[in-house]
Amino acid sequence: MRGATSPDRRSRSTADGSRRDRRLVAECPPVERESACTGCRRRERNGDSLMEAFGKLAPEAWNLGRRDVAEPRPSAGDALVRVAACGICGSDLHAAASDPGFEWISPPVTLGHEFAGVVEAVGPEASGIEAGQHVVATSIQGCLRCDTCRAGTTNLCADRRIVGLSYDGGLAELTVLPAAQLVPLPADLPLRTAALVEPLSVAVRATRVHTRIVPGDRVVVSGPGPIGLFSAQLAARAGAEVVVLGVEQDRSRRLALAERFGLRTATVGEGIDTRVSEALDGPPDGWIEASGAGAALLDALSTVRRGGALTLVALYGGEVAVNPTFAVRRELTFSCSYASVREDYVRAVNLLRRGAIEIDGLADPFPLGRAHDAFEAARSGEVVKPLVVVDDALARGQPVDTNTTAPLA
Ligand SMILES: [Zn+2]
Ligand SMILES: [Zn+2]
After folding, report:
1. How much distance in Å is there from the Cα of 108 to the middle of ligand 1?
2. CATH code of residue 55
3. What value of ipTM does the predicted structure carry?
4. What one-character DSSP code corresponds to residue 335?
5. Distance 7 CA to ligand 1 centre (A)
6. Distance between Cα 27 and ligand 1 center (Å)
7. For 105-152, what is each residue's pLDDT tens digit?
8. CATH code (residue 289)
9. Is 50 a domain residue?
10. Which DSSP string do the residues of 36-71 spell out, in sequence order?
11. Residue 231 and residue 224: Cα distance in Å, rounded?
12. How far is the CA of 349 from the centre of ligand 2 (A)?
């Protein structure tokens, strides 16, 4: 071992006579002092109150876990929101899997953009929002100053940020974000229900802006996840004949749910065009692709009628080989719908408040301590919408004891 440094030469004696590795001493982080109150759940580290959060811990795929982080404080223009419940979305799964298109995320980051909660405090320059208000966040946040934002398409802003990906999100007891990005809720909408506003707003945009439905249109919705089930209900409300398309594994849960919501269903596979035409009494005029599966996109291309339209409202894990000539010769129209803007949220809030959209049986609750299980359940497809209930009493709309002033042990 010529040239190797003897461990002894890097060591030094300490006051108590023991020998420590000097290199390790130099790299040793400051000692963190943690304490916890035995009477309540409050914990402190170096004088900061700690809270529980869940997120992506490192860049590699599926490196998810609990984070104990200091409670955030609102800066000027910010609001501090106590989270009641936060849904897990397909885009969270793409982020967790480090799929192409999600390389820009820099962990550790607390995930979660589909949350509803109560404003606990606001920063000095926050306007339009006050403490005590029930809110949801717009997940994609534009700069609100550029031409794109002024045109109302904040979801397309070149400087857009995404809560729960660009910065810490709602899988936490508390979260801080710009007050201008919050949408106030009516106090009578349970926060557990309001956690579905974001995915519903995505379906609102896909159907309202990007799918021109006229009564009597025949529409296929592929992908019976939350966005697909919402889009199908909205298309039916707009007067379309709708069939929801899934794979065989969707039969027991997702397609059964679609049928409970009053929608017709079919499964993909051999003879899909015939089955769809039979279910709709003719070839589809429109197709809303909400599955993110390349095979569904190819089915749409070959099944929609000549002159028909496709709306893509999914994110794809990879490339899909398509020969555009086939679509050109049939004069198909493509629309792509990405996330949603404030107006879509407001419409989604009103739809949920009026009970105009079926949601019973859609969400499966998990406590924050089991957020990892919620991700696994979403990944395996065994649940439709995992809903992480951070504060059960708040989520159900019951009064909560907000006394956090108990002395620390
Ligand atoms: Zn989402
Ligand atoms: Zn902008």
Report:
1. 20
2. 3.90.180.10
3. 0.96
4. E
5. 53
6. 40
7. 999 999 999 999 999 999 999 989 999 999 999 999 999 999 999 999
8. 3.40.50.720
9. yes
10. E-SSSS-EEETTEEEEEEEEE-SSSTT-EEEEEEEP
11. 9
12. 24
